[in-house]
Specification:
mainly alpha, single chain, Arc Repressor Mutant, subunit A, 2 domains, 9 helices
Length: 184
C-alpha cells in the first residue's frame, strides 16, 4: 500500500480520523525535535517544544488552508515556538562561540582575555533578541538550520535576494551591537 501524502492525512484528520494526525506526528516528530533542539539546546527542552508544537498543530489543523505545504506550516510553528521558549528561559548558550566570532567581529579585533565566553554569549544573545522578527527568523533558518536561501525562499514564499538582504542586515546589526557592548 502506497504511503499517503501529507494533504491526504490532513484531510483524513479533518474528517474526524485521528489516525491522520498520528501519522503526521510519526512522520515529522524527529524533524520537529531537531529543529527545536538547535534553537533551545537541550533534549528536555526540545521535547517540551515538540509536544507544544504538536498540540498547536492538532488545535490548528482544521483551519490549515493548505496554501503552502504542510511541512512549511509545521516548520514555521516549530521555529516560532522554539524562539518563544528560548526567550522565556533566556538561554545563555544559544550560539556556538567559535563559529560566530568570524561573522560578528572584525578580523583585527582581539578577544583573548578581554571578554569571557559567558559574557560574550550573553552579548550575542542580546544582539539576536534585538533583531526584528523577520531578520531573526531568517538568521535562525540560515545559521542554525543551515538552510539554503533557495530552501528558505520556497518555505517562506520570499525572494532569495530579499532573504539574503535580511540575513546581511541581521549580521550587521549583531556586529554593531557586539562591538558597542564590548567597548563599554
Amino acid at each position: 500500500m502506497a504511503s499517503k501524502t501529507d494533504r491526504e492525512l490532513v484531510e483524513e484528520f479533518r474528517q474526524g480520523k485521528v489516525e491522520g494526525f498520528n501519522e503526521l506526528v510519526r512522520r515529522y516528530q524527529q524533524k520537529v525535535y531537531w529543529i527545536a533542539r538547535r534553537v533551545v539546546g537541550t533534549h528536555e527542552d526540545a521535547d517540551d517544544v515538540a509536544q507544544d508544537v504538536f498540540v498547536r498543530v492538532y488545535e490548528g489543523l482544521k483551519n490549515f488552508r493548505a496554501e503552502s505545504e504542510f511541512f512549511t506550516w509545521l516548520y514555521r510553528i516549530t521555529v516560532n515556538v522554539s524562539l518563544n521558549a528560548k526567550q522565556k528561559k533566556r538561554w545563555k548558550e544559544f550560539l556556538r562561540l567559535d563559529e560566530v566570532l568570524e561573522e560578528t567581529l572584525p578580523s583585527d579585533y582581539q578577544t583573548d582575555g578581554q571578554v569571557h565566553r559567558q559574557e560574550y554569549l550573553t552579548i550575542l544573545e542580546q544582539a539576536i533578541e534585538r533583531l526584528p522578527t523577520k531578520q531573526k527568523m531568517v538568521f535562525t533558518m540560515r545559521y542554525y538550520d543551515e538552510l539554503s536561501y533557495e530552501e528558505m525562499a520556497a518555505m517562506l514564499k520570499k525572494s532569495v535576494g530579499g532573504l539574503k538582504a535580511n540575513y546581511f542586515h541581521a549580521l550587521k546589526k549583531i556586529q554593531e551591537y557586539v562591538r558597542r557592548e564590548m567597548n563599554k
